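Long-time lurker, finally posting.

We've been working with Thioesterase (Irpex rosettiformis) and I want a structural starting point before designing mutants. I don't trust myself to interpret raw outputs, so I'm hoping someone here can both generate the structure tokens and explain anything notable. Sequence follows.
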Amino acid sequence: MSESTQLKARTRSDYPFFLSYRTRWSDNDQYSHINNSIYYHYFDSVVNTYLITHCNLTPPHGEQIGLVVSSFCHFFAPLAFPSILDLGLRVSKLGKSSVAYEIGVFEEGKDQPSAVGGYTHVFVENKSRKSAAISTRTREGLERLLRPEPQMPQSKL
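Top reply, 14 upvotes:
Generated this for you. Predicted structure of Thioesterase:
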């Protein structure tokens, strides 16, 4: 099964944290749907809301910050203003100093995502920007969202 097919098959139950988000008129582009670049604003909103409210992160004055080192998004159905969205968040991989997030973008009341994307944060010391192990409090919060990908059975020849 391709990555895109797996992501399209996600449902609300795959995401342990949700943030309701009201779209804005300015989110639409000239084609009357939400512009692809706006999805990354949504991703930042749900991730940073979670980090601030559940992981004790205090940007920009805290000891650590997360820097984005990679990102992705798969689009499955168009959305447009004035939709209300439910942004689902999960952690797919948690390392010593990095975390991979996945965000499901759901139109309110729908169980299938209109888009699934995410990014990887590498945590660094705020002042020096040197890589740092994720703090204990932040790690504890992120572990509550950890949902690793199920291993696909290998066929026997």
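Before you design anything, note these points.
The longest helix spans residues 38-54.
The longest strand covers residues 64-75.
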